[in-house]
Model the fold of this input.
Amino acid sequence: MNQVHLSGKTALVTGAARGIGYEISRALALAGVKVGLVDLNVDEANQAAALLSGEGCLVQAIHADVSDETQIKEIVEQAALRWGRVDILVNNAGICPMTPLLEITPIEWDRVLAINLKGVFLCSQAVIPIMQRQRSGKIINIASSAGQMGGIAVGVHYSASKAGILGLTKSLARILAPDIQVNAVSPGTTESEMTRGWDDGAVQNIIRQIPAGRLGRPGDTAAAVLFLASEQASFITGQTINVNGGLLMV
Ligand SMILES: NC(=O)c1ccc[n+]([C@@H]2O[C@H](COP(=O)([O-])OP(=O)(O)OC[C@H]3O[C@@H](n4cnc5c(N)ncnc54)[C@H](O)[C@@H]3O)[C@@H](O)[C@H]2O)c1
Done:
């Protein structure tokens, strides 16, 4: 993974305090990127920053809620002032309630869509003028196989929000070409806090459907993000890289 060199680049990664976002931040930082670890959970973000700093990474914890337009505008402005540029945005923050279909309230629906989909829009909208001025940038959105094939265990609002990310990714890619590349990475079920409490029977049922015979690991998704963030991926835009062990083949 460390063969990609991105020294001097800067990135904002949302939901970076743990799980997939943490591994994405680590992969970018080990490749030489200065990374802002954006998270709602400031304590965990500070712990993540301390761990990564211990590995020699240039990272900083940033407290923000991706669904809050004012907060996002402010932290993106501050990052641009501090670094002089923002090269990479990874929209990773997300929540995944398992609420059964008939029990999902309109309030819960709105909350999932506000974080998982509006958050991607708000962070992208805040960063795009900076990337346009630079005439370069990479936006990488973390979707989910649930948005492509229907979730096996997750709530329908989650699947809908992730399907929305795929449409948003393609529209942004078209509008922002040729200077800015916008792509999605779509993980299948992955070992993280998000899935830790899942019923073992349900997890075994999912694993039986995965040709690779295991759940994803955060590093699997981080490797795909690192590639998309690199110059080697400069002719790739509007695409989705599926990181699912063969669960879904498209
Ligand atoms: N774990 C999986 O099986 C899986 C599969 C496919 C896609 N994904 C997606 O990958 C991404 C990361 O998932 P994970 O498994 O690492 O989850 P996780 O729950 O372990 O981590 C999510 C992080 O996002 C942060 N966050 C939540 N709401 C936020 C908000 N409003 N603003 C800022 N930060 C916020 C949390 O504090 C947490 O640090 C999510 O978008 C998720 O939907 C996960």
